[in-house]
Design goal:
about 180 residues; alpha/beta; Rossmann fold; six-stranded parallel beta sheet; about 20% strand; globular
């Protein structure tokens, strides 16, 4: 397995991961996407539904809620639900899914941020990422604004997406198709 990490304060982390998904699907690969802290209310999840209809071999799991997880308030109900969904899924469902589907690519979108915020314990992150044998059959991508150093140290590729200029600074926030 090769582990790729896309992190940083700039835009493009999930976009880079999903570009990798499209490339794998183009070659007939099997893909699993896990989106931490995100709901099904996104353009990428809508595309997933269409990809399934076209017969592509992809499974997608959103492990968040429709509510935003604020890093400044980690003591509310939304955070508790997010922790329960994420940890429960990784401990109980993910191993079965990975074994049954034998994907060529697994996307852990926002796993880095979830680990950074303490929503997913480090030992669980390590156990999930250490499962893969060192071969070229299955690869993983981890994204997140912040990705813990131990994950970056494990990675075979680390790309820091840094912001030079952003339209958010001009008041354009969450534009459909560009940001969700």
């Amino acid at each position: 397995m090769l582990l790729l990490v896309f992190y940083g304060k700039g835009k493009g982390k999930t976009t880079a991961a999903l570009g990798t998904v499209l490339r794998f699907l183009g070659y007939g690969g099997k893909v699993v996407v896990l989106q931490f802290m995100k709901s099904i209310d996104s353009g990428e999840y809508r595309l997933y539904r269409k990809l399934i209809e076209c017969g592509f071999n992809i499974k997608w799991f959103c492990l968040g809620t429709n509510e935003f997880v604020s890093p400044y308030d980690l003591s509310n109900e939304v955070v508790s639900i997010t922790i329960a969904k994420s940890c429960g899924f990784l401990m109980h469902e993910y191993p079965k899914i990975a074994e049954q589907l034998k994907p060529n690519l697994i996307i852990f979108d926002e796993l880095g941020l979830a680990a950074h915020l303490g929503l997913i314990p480090d030992d669980l992150v390590l156990s999930v990422l250490n499962v893969f044998p060192k071969n070229l059959e299955t690869h993983a991508v981890v994204t997140g604004r912040y990705v813990p150093k131990y994950v970056r140290d494990m990675a075979d590729l680390v790309t820091n997406c840094s912001e030079e200029k952003h339209y958010f600074r001009e008041g354009f926030v969450n534009i459909k198709g560009l940001d969700f």
